[in-house]
Amino acid sequence: LLTPRFALPVALLCASALAAVTVAARQSAPVAASRQNPALIEDLVYANRILANQGVVDGFGHVSVRDDKNPSHFLMSSSMAPALVTTKDILEYDLEGAPIDAAGRAVYLERFIHAAIYRARPDVKAIVHSHSPAVIPFGVTGTILRPVFHMGAFLGEGAPIFEIRDAVSGPTDMLISDNKLGDALAHALGGHAVILLRGHGSTAVGNSIQQVVFRAFYTEVNAKLQAEAMAVGKVNFLTPEEAAKASKNLDTLAARPWELWKAQIGKIK
Ligand SMILES: [Zn+2]
């Protein structure tokens, strides 16, 4: 379905990871790191590796999970290519996007995407941000990304688009690089599962790592198929009612591809 790698012009790549900044551990009122769940960390590492393996992320993009021991914190790797993430690279962040103890490691500039959505959506337990290529045209043309098949049913009535020009006055570098932009993105996401960022990428949310990886993968697949279908002829999309029913069904199936994708990765460090 997806080629493992996409040849994107460098100019299209989000500069966020390039511009990753190092944030020292907070000096005042340090918050103790919670005792993290090793199984959750392992799943998060697998999520990074699977998303890279399936071509959803490349050198850029990131995935996080809400800390199941402390729901006001989340876990995400330090700033690096997802394919290279190991258990030692996972950092803990508070809901303002501040790392609890980065120990000198660089953190993603766009960590505010995750912080803001976790603040706004208590139901969200995991988030993927990517620049997966087939989705990009739907962010810039006004053609709504809608479910063309049952595997994309979580797209519902269509994915909203975040227009960064509406969030701040004047031109931006397109990145979600502070909490104000994060809040505007979370507001535009509302209760949806996926939001497109115009001229940038997309963000998927889920109630588990397995579900969000599933959604990020099938968002890209649906976008590719929708573009192909539109080139073939008039598209008969899932109705919102069909999407709602099919989406419920998908929620029971997220474990199946997850086990396959994990097996394809093999053991992790
Ligand atoms: Zn980005």
Shape: globular
The helix/strand order is EHEEEEHEHEHEEHHH
- Number of helices, counting only DSSP H or I runs of 4 residues or more: 7
Tell me about the largest β-sheet. 7 strands, mixed
Low-confidence stretches: 1-32
Q: Find the structural class using helix and strand composition.
A: alpha+beta
List the bound ligands: zinc ion
Helix percent reads 25-40%
Supply Rg: 18 Å
Tally the beta strands: 9
Order of adjacent strands in the largest pleated sheet: 4-3-2-6-9-8-7
Percent of residues in β-strands? 5-15%
User: On the 0-100 scale, what is the average pLDDT?
Assistant: 90
- Report how far the terminal alpha carbons are from each other: 28 Å
How would you concisely characterize the structure shown here?
The chain contains seven helices and nine strands. By secondary structure, the chain is α+β, with helices and mostly antiparallel strands.
Strand and helix layout:
Layout: E1 21-22, H1 38-53, E2 62-66, E3 73-77, E4 90-94, E5 106-107, H2 111-120, E6 126-130, H3 136-140, E7 161-162, H4 179-189, E8 194-197, E9 201-206, H5 209-232, H6 240-250, H7 255-265
Parallel strand pairs: 7-8
Antiparallel strand pairs: 1-5, 2-3, 2-6, 3-4, 6-9, 8-9
The chain binds zinc ion (ZN).
